[in-house]
Automatic annotation (TrEMBL):
Protein name per its UniProtKB record: cyclic-guanylate-specific phosphodiesterase
UniProt domain EAL: residue ranges: 24-278
Domain of life the protein comes from: Bacteria
Full-length numbering of the shown residues: 564 to 852 of 852
């Protein structure tokens, strides 16, 4: 059966498990060269203020533009990159590229947009993580407070010796931390208690069930309330419908991200979006004057 690689991506997997093992091997070796062959791309998806719907940030999402297969989504190749250790250099490449883009947009548009970058568990355990992040900031000139590293709950806090130290170090750099896919891990509350997180991203599997499953609605509501009581911000992922938006807004979620507003866009398209927004604002102030 075809394995869905996400709506943005081609479905490349058909046939038997054996075929896909072979494909996996071929892909792993392709992935090894993807970075220096310039086949990696960073896409950007806006995050909007839940009340004004104004763009307040963007998440960097990596894609691999395979010469034969077209765009391959991270849900598929990140696990391969983690298995092979390639995630360390791919992740560093994404971080540096995204910081450069964000700083360029900051220079041109001055919107103070926050940049979210995903960090793999493997990267979080690297002893030189802080140096890499510090140098990406320095090299790009991006203000540390505009960078938010997104971490998933897939790693056990106990099993990851450098995790807490690395996260505290990121805070000392002035970088923000978000817990991604909140609610899906086995240890969500433990994470929240022990890690210095500024924000929670409610996983799309809960958001999807707004209007469908009252239990998931209750979890979303309780998560927002809990985040706020702990003085954390909260973002909902996978916002696809007006109904999702209305529910999240009514329950005071701070920010929203999802196809309802915008899909992840390649760098030039994202830039165009910012340009249009700027023109729109200029137009509004023209008529006001
Ligand atoms: P994530 O960090 O939770 O990112 C959100 C995912 O949801 C993205 O998938 C995004 O395209 C998708 N999405 C956004 N809005 C909607 C919506 O309204 N409906 C639905 N159904 N989906 C939506 P994507 O880009 O395929 O990325 C998948 C995952 O891959 C990410 O989940 C993240 O865990 C990982 N990832 C992406 N880029 C990187 C990266 O540079 N480094 C690392 N380590 N992981 C990455
Ligand atoms: Mg994320
Ligand atoms: Mg997520
Ligand atoms: Mg995810």
């Amino acid at each position: 059966a075809a394995k869905s690689l996400g709506r943005n991506n081609y479905q490349i997997f058909e046939g038997s498990a054996e075929q896909s093992t072979q494909q996996n091997l071929a892909l792993k070796s392709g992935l090894r060269h993807a970075e220096h062959k310039g086949e990696l791309r960073v896409f950007y998806q806006p995050q909007v203020d839940a009340v004004t719907e104004d763009i307040v940030g963007m998440e960097a999402l990596v894609r691999w533009e395979h010469p034969e297969l077209g765009f391959i989504g991270p849900g598929f190749f990140i696990p391969l990159a983690e298995e092979t250790g390639l995630i360390v250099s791919i992740g560093e490449w994404v971080l540096r590229a995204a910081c450069r883009h964000a700083q360029e947009w900051e220079r041109r548009f001055g919107l103070g947009l926050r940049l979210g970058v995903n960090l793999s568990a493997v990267q979080l355990m690297q002893p030189n993580l802080l140096e890499v992040v510090a140098s990406a900031l320095e090299e790009s000139g991006l203000e540390p407070a505009l960078l938010e590293m997104e971490i998933t709950e897939s790693i056990s806090i106990k099993a990851a010796p450098n995790l807490v130290e690395n996260l505290q170090g990121l805070h000392r750099l002035g970088v923000r931390i978000a817990i991604d896919d909140f609610g899906t891990g086995a240890a969500s509350l433990d994470y929240l208690r022990k890690l210095p997180a500024d924000r929670i991203k409610i996983d799309q599997s809960f958001v999807r069930n707004i209007g469908v499953d009252p239990d998931d609605e209750a979890i979303v509501r309780a998560t927002i309330e809990m985040a706020h009581r702990l003085k954390r911000g909260v973002v909902a992922e996978g916002v696809e419908t007006e109904q999702h938006m209305e529910f999240l807004r009514a329950n005071h979620c701070d920010e929203l991200q999802g196809y309802l507003f915008c899909r992840p866009l390649p760098q030039p398209a994202f830039e165009k979006l910012l340009l249009e927004r700027q023109r729109l604002l200029a137009g509004v102030s023209d008529t006001a004057a």
